[in-house]
Amino acid sequence: MSEPQAETQTEFSIHPKTVIGEVALSVASLDRQIAFYRDYLGLSVHWQNGNEAALGAPEIGNRGGSTVLRLKEEPTFRRYRGVTGLYHFAAVLPNRRELARAIGRLIALQYPNSPTDHIMTKTTYFDDPEDNGVELYAESPEDGAWSMANGRFETRRADGTLSSGREPLDVEALLGHLMKEDRLDVPAPAETRVGHVHLHVRDIDEAVAFYHGVLGFDVMGSAQAFRMAFVSAGGYHHHIGLNTWQGEGAPAPPPEALGMRYFEVRLPNKTELERVVKRVHEAGISAEQMEGGVLVRDPSQNGVRLASNESRQLGTERNP
């Protein structure tokens, strides 16, 4: 089964090894959120200092695991509805066995989640205790792929038959990947990282013009019927999902809103980072230096931290 192909490319494309890094959230209770992501998802606390903390994959030896979340406690903030921002962030696991462990853990702890078969990925969805959307998934391209047809997403299984791409996941079959000795209450695997983010935006074309036309992500598909689009680097099925499910022209949340502060676009090196930042400046978009990178905002005011792998090597992912 072939991989999805980019629908649209520009003469400038973001480096194919670009990935999504950490997701930064403003939270009402730091202790509650740390406990949830540690106990229910198995993430490790990389550091905690005052009202901030970073969580992610466990450290192996002297090698730090990928940061998944950076949390900042803002107890006076509140949740706003009908606004742009994070729909969900998605942590990708290395295989079906680890996804089975993660879903089994949620089931054992009686935490509501929605296992779903997207054919080329196996996944489950849920909200954390503060209503931030979360997806856990494993790649399964051997089962099929999706493509675009007449402005709609079309999913085909490996045998060529059509699928909705949103089928209930066969949880019993998935749990069959676990071994008898597999425990559910162990840390998340070291390979755990953010695979993609999915955003609420005010206008699809406007958002694509930013992520594709300025930053250089390839458009993997735009489905008018679903009011959504996918963009990615290097032919991945999607690094960023865009939708207008909060309504066309949805306003940005005010500064005192709980939820996403920014997500990180991580380029492989400083040279590639500088190329993208230059395009941001040339487009007349404001950018500001911040710890570990450069902060820009898309037209819907979603924060994007542009960073490079070199910033991680310098230790800027950690609290100074």
Number of strands: 20
Strand content: 35-45%
For the record, the count of structural domains works out to 1
The outline comes out as globular
Structure classification = alpha+beta
How would you describe what is shown here?
With 320 residues, this protein is α+β, with helices and mostly antiparallel strands. The chain has one domain: 2,3-Dihydroxybiphenyl 1,2-Dioxygenase, domain 1 (Roll), CATH 3.10.180.10. 17% of the residues lie in helices and 36% in strands. The strands form three sheets. A nine-stranded mixed beta sheet has the order 12-6-7-8-5-13-16-15-14. An eight-stranded mixed beta sheet has the order 2-3-4-1-17-20-19-18. Strands 9-10-11 form a three-stranded antiparallel beta sheet, with no helix packed on it. A hairpin with a 5-residue loop joins strand 7 and strand 8. The longest helix has 13 residues. The protein is globular and about 55 Å long. The N and C termini lie far apart (46 Å).
